[in-house]
């Protein structure tokens, strides 16, 4: 369970302060699929980054499975981020010098899983996402949809409880976008993951159990 109460976040930029989040109050149950919608600049990515412990907040309270995240040290925050959350981004964020297999396996390295176990963990995921035949391809040799399916496999390799997806279909045409959202929905249900997905597309959002709107840094 993720519980945010009155979360605030202000950025100090070169052009002054921006109040990205004014009052984000939100509760996400385990296994729930929630979509976040709202205009550009309303605070969606900021919220997702705070939920995923990628960024700090300035006010309010954020509890993960009952534990307050306020007093976490940098190292504890990094461990929590790695073990609890999987991330999928609009622009895929694959490493260009690694093939599909090694991109997906990368998080296992940080978890110090022995190399000889990689295949048993990675291959079933590649098969599930329909990209097992592409395991030796480099990211530059893949379509957008194939790159995003690789990124989804990577986000799942550590078996995180929560998947965070920031406009995962934003760089895909509608057909590839739908394939990706259908895969994400199927995996989320079958593996009982919590999924929080940011999108501008109401058709994509309609796959979710619940749609939450953000306006001017507030969760409506
Ligand atoms: N690092 C930063 N420094 C200063 N201001 C920032 C920074 N990141 C975001 N902002 C500002 O905070 C506000 C919220 O940004 P955020 O990226 O959360 O919006 P968003 O809802 O994800 O928008 P989009 O739909 O365009 O991705 C915006 O006004 C943005 O300009
Ligand atoms: Mg954004």
Features:
220 residues; 28% strand; 10 strands; 7 helices; 4-stranded antiparallel beta sheet; 6-stranded mixed beta sheet; binds adenosine-5'-triphosphate; binds magnesium ion; alpha/beta; Rossmann fold
Architecture overview:
The protein has a six-stranded mixed sheet with strand order 6-7-8-3-9-10, sandwiched between helices. A four-stranded antiparallel sheet has the order 2-1-4-5, covered by helices on one side. It has one domain: P-loop containing nucleotide triphosphate hydrolases (Rossmann fold), CATH 3.40.50. The protein is globular. The protein has 220 residues and is an alpha/beta fold. It has seven helices and ten strands. The protein has helices at residues 44-51, 74-84, 100-110, 118-128, 144-156, 174-191, 202-205; strands spanning 2-13, 16-28, 33-37, 59-64, 67-68, 85-89, 162-166, 194-198, 210-215, 218-219. Strand 7, helix 6 (174-191) and strand 8 form a beta-alpha-beta unit. The model has no long low-confidence stretch (mean pLDDT 95). Magnesium ion binds at residues 44-45, 166.
